[in-house]
Amino acid sequence: MARPKPDQFLLVLFCFTSSSLCFYHGMSWQVAQEEDGMSWRLDEEDSEVDIVQTRHDPSRSCNFESGKWVYDQSYPLYDSNCPYLSTAVTCQKNGRPDSDYEKWRWQPHGCSIPRFDALKFLGKMRRKRIMLVGDSIMRNQWESLVCLVQGVIPTGHKKVNYNGPSMAFHALDFETSIEFTWAPLLVELKKGAGNKRILHLDLIEENARYWRNVDVLVFDSAHWWTHSDQWSSWDYYMEKQTVFQSMNRMVAYQKGLTTWARWIDLNLDPRKNQSHL
Predict the structure, then answer these.
(1) For an engineered disulfide with 118, which of 83, 113, 149, 252 has Cβ 3.0 to 4.6 Å away?
(2) How far apart are CA 196 and CA 161, in angstroms?
(3) 1 occurs within a structural domain
(4) Has residue 135 been placed in a domain?
(5) Measured between alpha carbons, how far is 114 from 124 in angstroms, rounded to an integer?
(6) What are phi and psi of 252, to 5 degrees?
(7) Does the keyword Ribonucleoprotein apply (predicted)?
(8) In terms of DSSP H, where are the helices of the chain?
(9) Is the pTM of this model over 0.90?
């Protein structure tokens, strides 16, 4: 698959807080330097977002995977009473008495990530669709991102709507949507004869129809593939017209990701879209 170019949109914002674990698992991307509006009226030029590099990395790229969690008294970046947080992931609503866990942030070894600025982000993502695709881990990331930006948007200028397995937060004045689509295995899971659950390793379109015309796609798929047989989400595998009662899970996972990668290559234009896994 083609590597995104430096002038495409950079999505490194998912290393938010300790309640939103960093899941950016791509390669080391160069810094995007796109000018766009950042004020509420969108009438000011956005200053360049600089990732500060060390002298050991003259290529101006940064591996965001390599780093450590550091305690930062200025965190969290959003209030735990954000209305878009589901009860299941709101620790304090479930009785946790402390809040220090909210004050950890991710610090890469080779650079510094600028503090998240919601208006700057919305300015850069103006008239863009961002979609997170995956399981409940990705749903948590969607909630965190929405909570990060919703506080700077006046009441009446934002909304959430639902469409089947998808939900979308809309920043109306920016014409920006932040969306989540449920697809924990990426490929299709269907009911077959005898109500048996069949995981189709080479089919994806039923899920992928929600991913079309999106500017930035972020995928996550692993957790559901590792469930034990007792908790497995399927009864059989199927590839083409062949049904398999058993298969090495990592082999099946590779086949599923190959189907996903093929869809990416055939349907996304790297000059217009970005995808991250």
Answers:
(1) 149
(2) 32
(3) no
(4) yes
(5) 15
(6) -60, -40
(7) no
(8) 118-124, 136-150, 205-208, 249-267
(9) no
